[in-house]
Amino acid sequence: MHRTYSMRQSRAPTASQLQNPPPPPSSTKSGKFFGRSGIGHAMRLKTHSALNTRGPELSKKLGQLVKMEKNVMRSMELVGRERMEVAQQLSIWGEACDEDVSDVTDKLGVLLYEIGELEDQYVDRYDQYRVTIKSIRNIEASVQPSRDRKQKITDQIAQLKYKEPESPRIVVLEQELVRAEAESLVAEAQLSNITREKLKAAYTYQFDALREHCEKVAIIAGYGKHLLELVDDTPVTPGETRQAYDGYEASKAIIQDCEDSLTNWVNSNAAVSSNLSTRARTLSQRRRNNIQRNAQGHDLTGQDQPLNDNESGLWVPAEVHKGGDEYEDEEEEEEIAHSHQGSITNGELRGRQEELA
Amino acid sequence: MHRTYSMRQSRAPTASQLQNPPPPPSSTKSGKFFGRSGIGHAMRLKTHSALNTRGPELSKKLGQLVKMEKNVMRSMELVGRERMEVAQQLSIWGEACDEDVSDVTDKLGVLLYEIGELEDQYVDRYDQYRVTIKSIRNIEASVQPSRDRKQKITDQIAQLKYKEPESPRIVVLEQELVRAEAESLVAEAQLSNITREKLKAAYTYQFDALREHCEKVAIIAGYGKHLLELVDDTPVTPGETRQAYDGYEASKAIIQDCEDSLTNWVNSNAAVSSNLSTRARTLSQRRRNNIQRNAQGHDLTGQDQPLNDNESGLWVPAEVHKGGDEYEDEEEEEEIAHSHQGSITNGELRGRQEELA
């Protein structure tokens, strides 16, 4: 387990690190959204490079995660495929051996092949998790234009007030700013709500899939050990021949039992438990109570109504936002189109097949 | 599950397959050890290509398996590494989010990183399994020369009897053949014993490692779901800010609980069981009883004595056999050297590091 219980480097710097600080970051290459270089500069940079295929700053980190997850999927797929090949090769080798070794290796091959198939199924479910994470990336990308617009109008007002303080356009722009701010408030609330909803959905899905996969593979491993007991490993002396093998029915029954166990596995009878200690349970419960109390403190029903015609309460498709189609990502263009068209929870949406084809 | 409960294509041919049989195998390119072309031909071929880097026919299929397992290991290693990278990227993304999302994604990163580390540990254990399978390949390779020698002498005797039936060398060769046959009987018994012993050891080890790995990952998945409950996903209305996050202690306690569960996991309290049905249990028990009865039928203690100074009863290192060093495999030369020098069960023998370096 990571020592500090955090992936972030939050440890205090060592004496040596304090003595030799890293060089200061280049002020011309900052590229940071929130930084000393000011928001306006970052905005202008972004506007000028509208044809650039990189997504807006806000969705960049998550876009990177989505890409990295694709690599994980490809590697897992490779493991599954190679495992199936190994299973076949084990059976091929065993074929020339004595009857018991031959039968058991063939059946072991069946079990290993099954692990490979489970791995392939897990990759499909991993893709579902990834598609859900993508929907967070998309909302991040769609919120950016509304931030941009607010900033742009604020800039224009400031410029006009400096150059032509009497211009009638200032009033028009100020009204526009009020509208932009309202839009931005909605967008930020959407971002907050969708991010949480989808984050929980994505990882709940991933962890459930992972648990199912792991328990099933552990079941197979157990039956594999039963199979091994059919091999007669009592040593023979030179010239002695082994007794005829009488385990064909037994090995077949073991495989059948294994298949039944896998077929009947449901989430509700998962064997591995992850119980919380008293301390963790108390702390978690306190947190959940607070969440619930806050939720009850407001009557949200009236306020939510105007947006309720959309799928997730506050969700507005990215293209509804002005400039929402600005987000482009060469590699993933097709996939974004998918997630805009169809619901994220649509079971038939399998990015993987098209991507890998 | 594989329909036929076998990896082998034992199904009856279809009408279409019977109508269009595959072309007959080329008689000049046979390459088969046991076939119509006769053992002598295969032997001569082998002798002439002694400098060929391919191993003897007998260990070829298993040599192939060993190579394929190396690929499985590399792919699994890749998955582990990529999973760790993904864990870090998730934390990086979460850093800019609200406090609760930031804390939970960071802690999720810790759990995912741990999965990656477990995968890496599993690869190490997979390598141990693979090294054990290699020892079967090595005994297969070492038995080959003794088969060859017997055949060679038999051929010489037949040739002499035809060309010079009165030659005094025939008697000498016949005595030599008796010795070669004795050697061969020992070699075949060794092959049978080592194959069974190591096959059971290798797969017992793999299945135990797999079970441990799977149960631990399932534990992590469970704690991951506890973490997700700390995220406040009650929707906020535009302009509303969320309550301050109070879950830092809770998330830390969850991670600590998870770490404790992983640290205290032992094989004996494995949660996933693979119980046999009554039928499979009866059949398996019958088979085991038969094995035991046969083992008791002989008093092997006296016969085994001459070889007892070796590690596994009948095991003789490959190089003791005349021509045992004939087996070569460019890619794996170094590894063979390893497994000749050290015991297979030596925990410090890790082919993986050197191979991948």
UniProtKB/TrEMBL annotation, chains A, B:
Alphabetized, the UniProt keywords read: Coiled coil, Phosphoprotein
Q: Which residues form the signal peptide?
A: none
Q: Where is the composition biased (Polar residues)?
A: 1-19, 302-311
Q: Which residues form a coiled coil?
A: 170-197
Region (Disordered), start-end ranges:
1-34, 292-357
Any one GO CC term of this protein is:
plasma membrane
Q: Which InterPro entries does the entry link to?
A: AH/BAR_dom_sf (IPR027267), PIL1/LSP1 (IPR028245)
Q: Does the keyword Coiled coil apply?
A: yes
Q: Give the stretches traversing the membrane.
A: none
Pfam families from the entry?
Pil1
Biological processes, Gene Ontology terms: eisosome assembly; endocytosis
What's one GO MF term for it? lipid binding
Residue ranges annotated as compositionally biased, kind Acidic residues, are 326-335
Which protein, by its recorded name, is this? Sphingolipid long chain base-responsive protein PIL1
Biological source species: Botryotinia fuckeliana (strain B05.10)
